[in-house]
Specification:
By secondary structure, the protein is mainly α. The chain has one domain: MetI-like (MetI-like fold). 75% of the residues lie in helices and 0% in strands. It has 13 helices and no strands. The radius of gyration is 26 Å and the shape is globular. Residues 82-262 form the ABC transmembrane type-1 domain.
Length: 279
């Protein structure tokens, strides 16, 4: 029989926890990996412009766009238009998002409320937002109210639908369990229904943010005096392609920034959910 070293012991659970765990490759490089494809596109775009594969009369070089952005930043014009567009987007998100969230909660919690209002909301939702522009101009003119209305209505529907269905799809067994434990309505909503609906609500918010920037581009072409859309339209009149491309890239960056912030809030708010805890 083989002798056992008296100093030997089997590893405990605490020992296993203290051992270093190799992280997957994509997590070790998560900081820069998302920028690999956009960076590669910019490099190929720049090279293609230099060797003549891409005409600068059609698409300016990224370096030229960067130089123009620096020039506009020095004059303060870039920050003016960027600030105006951001304020319009946040204003529309606050109005449309609040209304969509409130109505989604009301209809999700009350079958009567859903029966009364959901059909009307769905009918209006199926009208293309761009088709409303002539009517919006008649109602509100071409001032800030018209632009704010268009952005607000664009974010209203995604947040409403996802809030409504998020509340409706909460596991009924969890609700019954909460009632069995004697939870009040307020406690049941705050600890069971609302947390259960949060994943769907965040999906609606992220989708709404994408629509928000899309509609804002159109809204800022309606006789605006400032904003990224206005800057792009003015540049188009004078064939300043570098400014047009800069405006498009800024819209893309703003949209990505909004999505990153929302994603961070989502992971933080849903840390209790195993599907989000590992991110």
């Amino acid at each position: 029989m083989t002798a056992v070293d008296p100093a030997f012991r089997f590893p405990t659970r605490q020992d296993r926890k203290s051992l270093p765990v190799a992280r997957p490759w994509h997590l070790r490089h998560a900081a820069w990996l998302p920028f690999l494809v956009p960076g590669l596109i910019l490099v190929l775009w720049e090279i293609g412009s230099h060797v003549g594969l891409i005409s600068t009369q059609i698409l300016p070089r990224p370096s030229a766009v960067l130089v123009k952005a620096w020039d506009l930043a020095l004059t303060g014009e870039l920050f003016l238009h960027l600030g105006v567009s951001t304020l319009r987007a946040l204003g529309g998100l606050a109005i449309g998002g609040t209304l969509g969230f409130a109505l989604g909660l009301a209809n999700g919690l009350s079958a009567r409320s859903a029966l009364l209002t959901d059909t009307s909301v769905q009918m209006v939702r199926n009208i293309p937002i761009l088709a409303l522009i002539p009517l919006v101009i008649i109602w509100f003119g071409v001032g800030e109210t018209a632009r704010l209305f268009l952005v607000s209505i664009s974010v209203f529907f995604p947040i409403y639908i996802n809030t409504f269905h998020g509340v409706r799809n909460v596991d009924p067994q969890l609700i019954e369990m909460g009632r069995a434990y004697g939870m009040s309505r307020r406690s049941l909503f705050g600890k069971v229904i609302f947390p259960g609906a949060l994943p769907s609500i965040f999906v609606g918010l992220r989708y709404a943010l994408g629509l928000m920037w899309f509609v804002l581009v159109v809204a800022e072409t309606l006789a605006a005096k400032a904003g990224l859309g206005y800057m792009a339209m003015q540049a188009r009149e004078f064939m300043m392609l570098d400014v047009v491309v800069l405006s498009i890239l800024l819209y893309a960056l703003l949209g990505k920034l909004a999505d990153v912030v929302t994603r961070a809030l989502e992971v933080r708010a849903l840390a209790w959910n195993p599907a989000y805890a590992r991110h």
